[in-house]
Design goal:
By secondary structure, the protein is mainly β. The strands form 13 sheets. The protein has a 5-stranded mixed sheet, with no helix packed on it. Strands 39, 40, 42, 43 and 44 form a 5-stranded antiparallel sheet that branches. The chain has a 4-stranded antiparallel sheet with strand order 1-2-6-5, with no helix packed on it. InterPro entries: Carb-bd-like_fold, SbsA_Ig.
């Protein structure tokens, strides 16, 4: 009996051990997750002086927060108004921010330190949005506000980092001679708020303040101005606030009273006046046969180079060809004694803007150096003779050509006495190739480019050819023979779009169709209240309307001295989807949507930055760790 009892005791013991191991293997071995992530921005808990203090004579402000904080680029993102001539010292240390004003404080003035979105906690980078602090050197804290937004006048892009200024001096010259009374800056969405304003009447300006002097004293600075004055005011208002149990469940909805400051929808359209200083950027010698002078803007007069370290054998030792509308001028060297030299020193006299923007003759000595590459051996034929090097001629005539396209011709060096007759265009009519007429003209931007154009019709077939040795270049090269066939696409390859325009009955206007890069690809004048775009490729299109007040067919900028605003531009918020063999008719009320909300986000380049961090599902992280652990060495298998 003792032996049998001992055996059962051992059996029960081993059974208990096995069951314990099974339970351990089956248990959830999750790693503690540490609780929810911090998703709240820092909280302001105190300061010296207190917020909205009056009769403060000190120059230092210390702010305290509930956690460790940091400031992003305070010299750019922290705005102090009235504007400071000497930059303040702004530092963060632990949970504190210290601001030291170096300018002499004005009497009876409300000072605002606007941190915009520059403050964030030290770990999770949660941003404290639109935080500002104010104090007064007098008995009163000025508390009025105005707000609005700034857009690029030409393309309605939101403009971040633009200074907004108020002047109580209503004279036009104040913007150019005096620093702003109150200032702020636009955020990444182009929005602004100017705080702590005294009661009164003001003019409002926007300025891309290049030299940071808070006035428009540089002709190249972008500006905007309101035609009318503003009178800041306020009114009591209510809004509906919603609290949430979680992301899907509403807790309560309640009505909250607040003070609405007006005006709160100021629209400023930023523009640069038609002014560019003219200067030469750099000379270039890309190969032995030419050198190029580059200018920042098109020049009206082509400068004549004067040799310094060489003497040409020919009087006409170069041939000039303006490109890029006159911004670049290529000088083709026709004298072999010149183009065989590695270094050319020349004297160039050209028009250059002086400090007042007036064009004056400027003489510079330039040096162009040819960086020779290793000599390339000319290929030889089987009989030992060198292979002929033909004039490089590129004719772009795709097999399937769109109805509105042209045939382009480009050379890599100047052809001599190029004529229309060198090109042969034939149309297939009843299976017979018949010579047809066409227009032939030079590219207005690239002097080595040409176009062959004809009023094509749906489904027509053509062939273009050039006889060998018909075209001769400046450097003695002949063209090779060329022939290509192409066909115009049929009518059912295209769609058509008609847009009814509402909101403009008096001002001349035109509409541009834009691609996904915000680039114009078609243009039509508004006639009888609408625009028609025929033969569009199947694609997505966007639309921009320009109020062409002077009827010159281009967008014109504004001018502050003349108090002339830039021409109005409108974007259709809708995208137009064009399909093959479809006719689409749409109606667009250009004034139905505010400017700020018109431009589709898909083609907006200055997209708003993400200031709020995405929510994390911390509850799942423990499960994910446990899952990966159970697939490794952390568990048992039976």
């Amino acid at each position: 009996m003792r032996i049998r009892k001992s055996f059962y005791q051992r059996l029960l013991g081993w059974t208990g051990v096995c069951m314990l191991l099974v339970l351990c293997a089956c248990a959830n071995m999750a790693t503690p997750n540490g609780g929810p992530y911090d998703e709240d921005p820092p909280k302001f808990i105190g300061s010296t002086p207190l917020p909205n203090s009056t009769n403060y004579k000190g120059k230092k402000v210390e702010l305290l927060f509930d956690e460790l904080i940091q400031i992003d680029n305070p010299s750019e993102n922290v705005i102090i108004t009235p504007p400071q001539r000497e930059l303040p010292i702004i530092q963060s240390a632990g949970r504190k921010i210290q601001v030291e004003l170096l300018d002499t404080l004005k009497e009876n003035m409300t000072y605002t330190i606007d941190f915009t979105n520059s403050i964030a906690d030290n770990n999770e980078k949660n941003v404290l949005e639109n935080f500002s602090f104010a104090f007064s050197t007098g008995d009163v804290i000025d508390s009025l506000e105005i707000s609005g937004y700034v857009l690029n006048a030409e393309n309605l892009e939101p403009m971040p980092g633009i200074s907004i200024g108020l002047h109580s001096n209503l004279a036009d010259s104040a913007f150019q001679k005096l620093p702003f009374d109150r200032t702020s800056r636009t955020n990444d969405r182009g929005r602004f708020t100017v705080r702590n304003i005294k009661p009164g009447t003001y003019r409002v300006y926007a300025l891309n303040d290049v030299n940071r002097d808070y006035k428009f004293d540089q002709p190249g600075e972008d500006i905007a101005f309101l035609d009318s004055v503003v009178v800041p005011t306020f009114e009591p208002a209510t809004r509906m606030d919603t609290t949430w149990v979680d992301s899907l469940t509403i807790d309560t909805i309640k009505q909250v009273a607040f003070t609405r400051f007006l005006p709160d929808n100021i629209e400023l359209r930023l523009f640069k006046e038609k002014f560019e200083r003219q200067y030469m950027t750099r000379p270039e010698r890309p190969d032995e046969h030419r050198f190029i002078l580059h200018f920042n803007v098109p020049v009206d007069t082509v400068p004549a180079p004067v040799p310094l370290n060489f003497e040409p054998e020919q009087a006409d030792w170069y041939l000039e060809q303006p490109t890029d509308g006159g911004k670049n001028i290529t000088f083709w060297l026709t004298d072999s004694t010149v183009w065989k030299r590695d270094t050319l020193q020349m004297e160039i006299t050209y028009p250059k803007s002086d400090s007042l923007g007036i064009l004056q003759p400027q003489t510079d000595t330039i040096q162009t150096v040819l960086r020779r590459r290793g000599e390339q051996k000319r290929k030889k034929k089987k009989n030992g003779e060198p292979e002929i090097v033909f004039l490089n001629m590129t004719i772009d005539a795709p097999g399937d050509m769109d109805l509105f396209d042209t045939v382009s011709v480009a050379f890599d060096e100047p052809p001599i006495e190029l004529k229309k007759e060198f090109f042969h265009l034939e149309q297939e009519i009843d299976s017979v190739w018949t010579t047809v007429d066409f227009d032939f003209y030079q590219d207005s931007i690239n002097s080595l480019g040409y176009y062959i154009q004809r009023k094509w019709k749906y489904g027509e077939s053509y062939q273009i050819s050039v006889d060998s040795a018909a075209i001769y270049s400046l450097y003695g090269k002949w063209n090779d023979k060329f022939q290509a066939k192409f066909k115009i696409k049929p009518e059912d390859s295209y769609g058509h779009l008609y847009i009814n325009i509402i909101g403009n009955d008096t001002v001349p206007a035109y509409v541009e169709l834009l691609n996904s890069k915000d680039e114009p690809i078609r243009k039509a004048t508004v006639k009888n209240g609408g625009v028609l775009f025929m033969d569009l490729k199947p694609d997505k299109y966007y639309a921009r309307l320009v109020m062409d007040a002077n009827g010159n067919g281009i967008w014109d900028t504004g001018n502050y001295a003349e108090k002339r605003q830039p021409e109005e531009v409108f974007y259709c918020p809708k995208v137009y989807t064009i399909m093959q063999n479809f006719q689409v008719e749409e109606t667009w009320n250009i004034r139905e949507t505010p400017w700020l909300k018109q431009k589709p986000l898909d083609i907006t380049k200055n997209k708003p930055k993400e200031t709020t961090k995405k929510k994390r599902d911390y509850r799942e992280e423990g499960r994910n760790k446990q899952s990966s652990s159970s697939n490794g060495l952390g568990g048992f298998s039976f």
